[in-house]
Amino acid sequence: MITQKEFYQRRQKFAKKMADNSLAVFVSSKPKIRSNDTEYPYRQDSNFYYLTGFKEDNAALLFIKRNKKVKVVLFVEKKDPKMELWTGKRVGVKRAKKEFIVDAVQGSDTFCDTVLQNSDGIKCLYYDLKVEDTRIQELQKQLSPKLLSYKDGAKIAEAMRLIKSPAEIKLIKKALGITKKAHHRAMKLAQKLSYEYELQAEFEYIFTKKGAYSDAYTTIVASGDNANTLHYINNDKPLKSGEMILIDAGCEYEYYASDITRTIPKNGKFTKEQKELYEVVLDVQKKIINMMKPGVLRSDLQKESERLLCEAMVQLGILKGDVKKLLKKQKHKKYYPHGIGHYMGLDVHDQNPYKDKKGKEIPLQAGMVLTIEPGIYLPKDDKKIPKKYRGIGIRIEDNILVTKKGYKNLSSGIIKEVEDIEAYALSCS
């Protein structure tokens, strides 16, 4: 768990990045309507959670920086026994004062008035420019005559989130431990199940049983040609013997994500063609992971993954011609259209900057967590590729921590070698 001391230190770091005589506000996520008067399970805004550790809705955070001194106020929903009867207990102002290391805690109904009361002499307001919230809109309206500028407070928080603390890494590892159990269960049961949604249900079962309560994104169970739709989430087709199943699934534990893809044979045994393609993708993934260390550019990982996959596609007869010319014309992109990976943390696609303020790419640094996920996607109706490969889509994805001297594969315990997958499936049949 992340301690309140760490949340306090994050707020202190954020405050140091604010200009003097400025305000910064962060607001909680709004509940989202699912249908009529029912809501989706509530999930806190990632930046708000990063700075507070507070999980309830109708909350806000205010930084007041004047004469180089900073005051931080947390606003929470007041306790209301009648509402709590329906929606559950609230932390409330009194308890929040004891639990959160802030200068003051007030009821949420005082938020706008408190901001306005502290706006004299303030020249800049920091807030998340992407957020559409009536509270922010009202503040903009009231403060516009006084302010010289608005700045994106979210970008500051997101840059801070780039380097994970030991506590954050521990939570990611916890999420991955649960995700490991789910992927291994899928490998065990794939031969016995008949539909994609049955495998999806097994993931959701393990996530809930092990205390994750939530997936980090909608689980992808894509069998056969469905794997060639990158964000396939229908998960409603039959699982057919002889086909591959691409499963992209990870849980979220205490707000921290995992993101793993494995591609397995439905009947537990790779065909010759499936194995050829799979080992190409696995070899590329291993080589790219081995490149990772501080100072390396993500764009270099991307370029090398494209070069390696393009070479392999030529060797397998999927592409024809000179590798350099094919790369220049981006012919390989038809079968490898996505990036090599992304940041991961509080969001499965963590909202961290890839470039600095000058537009220069940020190199890998110790404490970053990224996915590495090369893939080859060969549509069933593409007559330009050898018939034996059509309808196969393969992606292999792991979660990698950049360390001071290199990297650590946080998901190395989730099996991915051909012989391991086959042996595991055989032992469970």
Give the CATH H-level superfamily of the largest domain.
Creatinase/methionine aminopeptidase superfamily
What is the CATH fold-level name of the largest domain?
A: Creatine Amidinohydrolase
Distance between the termini: 38 Å
The helix tally amounts to 13
Secondary structural class: alpha+beta
Strands across the major sheet, in which order? 6-5-4-1-7-8
State Rg. Answer: 24 Å
Largest sheet: 6 strands, mixed
What is the average per-residue confidence, as pLDDT, rounded to a whole number? Answer: 96
* Count of strand segments: 19
Cα shape = globular
Q: What is the name of the CATH class of the largest domain?
A: Alpha Beta
Proportion of residues in β-strands:
15-25%
- As a percent range, the share of helical residues equals 25-40%
CATH architecture grouping of the largest domain = Alpha-Beta Complex
Low-confidence stretches: none
Please give the domain count. 2
Describe this structure as you would to a colleague.
- The chain is an alpha+beta fold.
- The protein contains 13 helices and 19 strands.
- The protein has helices at 4-16, 46-52, 81-87, 92-99, 111-117, 134-143, 153-160, 166-189, 196-209, 272-290, 298-315, 323-328, 418-428; strands spanning 22-27, 33-35, 38-39, 60-66, 69-76, 104-107, 124-127, 149-152, 214-215, 220-223, 244-249, 251-253, 256-257, 260-265, 369-372, 375-378, 392-395, 398-402, 407-409.
- Strand 18 and strand 19 (407-409) form a beta hairpin.
- Helix 5 (111-117) runs parallel beside helix 6 (134-143) and helix 10 (272-290) packs antiparallel against helix 11.
- The chain is globular, with a radius of gyration of 24 Å.
- The two termini are 38 Å apart.
- 40% of the residues are buried.
